């Protein structure tokens, strides 16, 4: 679905209203699952230079800074840093304001580029991927809702989600092939995927109980559903090495 929010998507995710979705034990469970996915995909080694595109919500910047990485958070406007400042992260990260689709950075400026909770609300999502690939020296890590599993019912269930959450937004879901092809066109290949939840996140928020969410998702993972249908899925796309052919060239 196309995003209909008038303000930039990263300003919305930096709001207190958005942060309220992650309160309570169920909300904390969702954030911990996201953190585990991010850390499992992050390249190992020395402290990395990381660009967090649209990360004013602080969900990823807090994790990356805690792990000792040099984090730059790019926001579309100063208002996009509202939540990050409320968390005190402005003292642990560099803040930069600019066009998310035309960032103020040179090619290959960062070891890793991360963007979480953004691409599904961007109209020109392919340009976002191209720009992240341009400034990444190595990997790009993003998350996105998939068009498989229960998430395939989004057009039907969105009204229910909106009534429950109140401030939810329209968003676009993607097939894994769509995302992989976009990265392939920009010199990257998808190297790893981590599905996060089999049940829609709104269901976990509705239960309000982290232990219940953990139990349901653990069961789904044991029977192989999370890898196949988990959404949102977080992926790492690595820059192709010299001589490595693109997926289209291999066909």
Automatic annotation (TrEMBL):
This protein's UniProt keywords: Ubiquinone
Keyword Lyase included in the entry's annotation: no
Matching Gene3D superfamilies: Vaccinia Virus protein VP39
Pfam families, sorted: Methyltransf_11 (PF08241)
Record domain Methyltransferase type: where: 51-137
Keyword flag Glycoprotein: no
UniProt name for this protein: Ubiquinone/menaquinone biosynthesis C-methylase UbiE
Native organism: Natronocella acetinitrilica
């Amino acid at each position: 679905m196309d995003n209909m929010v008038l303000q930039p998507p990263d300003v919305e995710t930096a709001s207190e209203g958005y942060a309220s979705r992650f309160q309570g034990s169920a909300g904390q469970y969702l954030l911990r699952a996201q953190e585990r996915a991010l850390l499992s995909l992050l390249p190992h080694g020395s402290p990395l230079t990381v660009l967090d595109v649209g990360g004013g919500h602080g969900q990823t910047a807090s994790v990356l800074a805690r792990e000792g990485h040099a984090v730059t958070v790019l926001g579309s406007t100063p208002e996009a840093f509202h939540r990050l400042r409320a968390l005190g992260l402005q003292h642990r990260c560099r803040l930069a304001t600019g066009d998310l689709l035309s960032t103020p950075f040179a090619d290959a400026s960062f070891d890793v580029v991360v963007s979480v909770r953004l691409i599904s609300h961007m109209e020109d999502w392919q340009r976002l991927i191209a720009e992240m690939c341009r400034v990444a020296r190595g990997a790009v890590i993003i998350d996105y809702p998939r068009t498989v599993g229960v998430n395939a019912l989004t057009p039907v269930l969105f009204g229910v989600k909106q009534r429950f959450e109140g401030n939810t937004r329209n968003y676009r879901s993607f097939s894994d092939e769509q995302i992989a092809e976009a990265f392939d066109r920009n010199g990257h290949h998808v190297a790893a995927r981590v599905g996060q939840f089999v049940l829609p996140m709104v269901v976990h928020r509705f239960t309000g109980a982290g232990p219940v969410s953990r139990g349901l998702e653990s069961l789904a993972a044991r029977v192989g559903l999370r890898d196949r249908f988990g959404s949102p899925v977080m992926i790492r796309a690595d820059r192709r090495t010299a001589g490595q052919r693109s997926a289209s060239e291999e066909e």
